[in-house]
What we know:
Layout: H1 2-16, E1 20-25, H2 26-32, E2 46-54, E3 58-63, H3 67-74, E4 81-85, H4 90-102, E5 107-109, E6 117-118, H5 120-124, H6 132-155, H7 162-174, E7 179-187, H8 189-193, E8 207-216, E9 219-228, H9 234-253, H10 260-267
Parallel strand pairs: 1-5, 3-4, 5-6
Antiparallel strand pairs: 1-2, 2-3, 7-8, 8-9
Helix pairs in contact: 6-7, 9-10
Amino acid sequence: xxxxxxxxxxxxxxxxxxxxxxxxxxxxxxxxxxxxxxxxxxxxxxxxxxxxxxxxxxxxxxxxxxxxxxxxxxxxxxxxxxxxxxxxxxxxxxxxxxxxxxxxxxxxxxxxxxxxxxxxxxxxxxxxxxxxxxxxxxxxxxxxxxxxxxxxxxxxxxxxxxxxxxxxxxxxxxxxxxxxxxxxxxxxxxxxxxxxxxxxxxxxxxxxxxxxxxxxxxxxxxxxxxxxxxxxxxxxxxxxxxxxxxxxxxxxxxxxxxxxxxxxxxxx
Length: 268
């Protein structure tokens, strides 16, 4: 898997006429390192380690605080050359060190970086085709996340607040090393009023909905689960059946070689 991703990146460099690519985003770190994490700040797109891949070598640039953990727990055996900068001078010295390593060649970067071509969207395309190992990890993520939500739904009781339901969901996911980049919980009328019901202290009366985007190792799985106490109203059942029909149509049209636009058009 590592060799395949190195091949894809260097093929990208050749196609773009670049001497190297600087990866600062957490998702690209996880992708290139085959599911490892640079996840100190969960709410940030960028991490504390930047990967510089040239046509000949690959570097991991970080500060002296993160370096021991990164090399021992995330990058062990992956043959990166580690570049360690003092944390208190990191912002001042990072650019000059990258410039020296790239040696005046053209550079691409997945964030806006001085004197580099912004290649975030183009680079994302080389991640679209999952490796066999990524498919296995994605299936694991889906199965574990679904199990976690099922267990939460089975424990929900009338009178639980949306925040309590959200907290229990986050706890169950974290037990598997999974975090949620999006966690929504709506109850009763809030489900119908808002597309994105962020959790509040409102207490459940009859109907609850949990929405999660579960993340691990750079992979994402989206899930929605609903719980209703008492007879199910025809309005909810009708909407549920409509969603299932749309979902089935889109899944059946999702085959190798199809464009997203074609899938949505045919599944409409």
